[in-house]
Amino acid sequence: MSAPVLNMASRVATRLLPAARQQRLTILIYHRVLPQSDPMRPDEPTVEVFDWQMRVLRHAFNPLSLMEAVEALAAGTLPERAVCVTFDDGYADNETCALPILQKYQIPASVFVSTGFLNGGRMFNDSVIEAVRGFTSDSLDLRDLGLEVYPLVDWPARLRCAEQILHAIKHLEPHERSAVVGQITRDSTALPEDLMMTDAQVRNLADNGVYIGAHTVNHPILASTAAVQARAEIAQSKQQLEELLQRPVQAFAYPNGKPGADYRPEHRDMVGDLGFDTALATHWGAAAAASDPLQLPRFTPWDRTQWRFMLRLLLNYRRLDPLLGSS
Ligand SMILES: [Zn+2]
After folding, report:
1. What is the pTM of this model?
2. Which of 54, 79, 155, 287 is most buried (most C-beta within 10 Å)?
3. Do 171 and 305 lie in a common domain?
4. What's the pLDDT tens digit per position in 123-141?
5. Cα 31 to averaged position of ligand 1 atoms, centre (Å)
6. Domain that holds residue 169
């Protein structure tokens, strides 16, 4: 679709969807932007997909920086079809693949970094995915870990294997989970150590206008972490990023981010006590002026065609922040 067509289509659609005209904010959540499609990560956008998604945002929506949008939301001065782009975790491809596209379309963005994985670290899910990608045998027997025997005959089988392992271990205690992941990866050579950003990459994003927010140190599920430790995870990620960037870090994103399941009201209060003024969750919906600035909803785009992507984003404005209904 050409830019004028996108623009016209979104204007017509906005007439039909009054919610998109009201003071509502859609905050998109991304994790990675892949240099090319990857059979082990079918849900992540490639540079090609991310490029047209940002084109749609530029021509059919009003992209704002998170801070600008949060202020405008409170002041009642938000433009119609206001949208923010955010990334969680701190993947290196945010700097290598996403940044050039964000710059091309002049889209402001925020990246929420789990500081413990910077400079060569790897999140447990990536360790499992990369190990399963690399096994040379055509099956994987994990019965000694209380898991199963998984066929690895082709990419769909490998993807299923990684998904089943992740599903089985994601709710284990962190130390127990690391032990299982250590067993699974013990024979893996050459697991990537450049999946997450380096300090220099975080600085480069910040120097290019990307807002850097905190996302804990080790990405624990706060709801299943002792209070003292949860507080330290939140506080230390803020402090480490402030030291790295030499500027205040006032936005936070909850790991996994489902209210009630992944974090509780006490964690929301901790985030406020520690000096954050904006925090992002992952319950779906559009934020309104009455939304809690320390629990703003987000929305994960997944459509692979421009029309559907645009329409689904427009429909998101109708889905008022569900936390407002419950209070
Ligand atoms: Zn995360």
Report:
1. 0.95
2. 287
3. no
4. 999 999 999 999 999 999 9
5. 8
6. 124-184
